[in-house]
Every structure is written in C-alpha cells, then in structure tokens.
Amino acid sequence: MLVGGLAVGIWGEPRATIDIDFLVSIKTEDFNLLKQKIKMSKKFIFIHDEPMIFGKISFLRATLKSNKDISVDFLFADNNFKHEALKRKEPVQIADFSVNISTPEDLIILKLLSSRQQDRLDAKKVLEIQKEHLDREYMQKWAEKLGIDMKTF
Length: 153
Description:
Elements lengths: L1 E2 L1 H7 L7 E6 L6 H11 L2 E2 L6 E3 L2 E8 L6 E6 L3 H8 L2 E5 L2 E5 L2 H10 L3 H14 L5 H11 L7
Parallel strand pairs: 2-6
Antiparallel strand pairs: 1-2, 3-5, 4-5, 5-6, 7-8
C-alpha cells in the first residue's frame, strides 16, 4: 500500500520527494526474506543489512537500479495498527494504473509514528486539507493505543 510523500500528495498537497514508500504485510523479523525477494527481482541495488528505524517505523530501503536517485522504502506491518491500515487501503487510479493507498486517517497516524519533522508537517497538511472528511474517533482510538498525543498536534 502506498504511504509516504506520494500519498501525502494525493490526500494533502504535492511536495518534492525522492523516495517511494510502501507499507507491506511483512513483519520486521521477516526482514531477510523480504531482502532476498528484492534481490531476486534484480530491479534494486544497495540494500541495508539491517532494517532502518524512524521513531516507531521500521523499514527496508532499496535503491532502484534504473535510477539510483530514487529509493523505495518497504515499511513493515509490525503491529495491529499497521495490519488494520492495510485492510482499509483504498484503490486510486493514477494515469493508466491503479495503486492501493492508505486512507488519510491511517496516513496521518503513520506519519506521527515517525520521529522526523517532515512527517509531522505532512500529517498536519493532510489533516488540514482532509479535516471535513476524517474519522476522528478512529484516529483518536489508535492515537491512544499507540501513545500519540493528538492534542499537541
């Protein structure tokens, strides 16, 4: 499921990004399996030996062989929230193909799980633009379970 800056561009406001982020239905402990499958595809290079971590987000980063300036981050579905987010995905038509994307609520929560300032800004932008359409109860439920303070946000 598409998450990250490209998803922010759909639910919020487009911004420059040099990576593509996907939430995948794989646990962090299956890192080596995912790494092996990515290597077998022969479409990626430079794969870190260990998962990268930003806040409460763990992921595998690979670089496209066809364009070394673009990396692809595979975020692990390593908790109940991320599994629920995957179930709630929405298909979006982009040009001549369809891609599954996170809901705006799930994107906001995912962004707030990261420790990066850019992710907080992204979450704020999506919240601002989608404010009339958000399921606030759903967001509050997960914020409480995940230890996210929505009041300061």
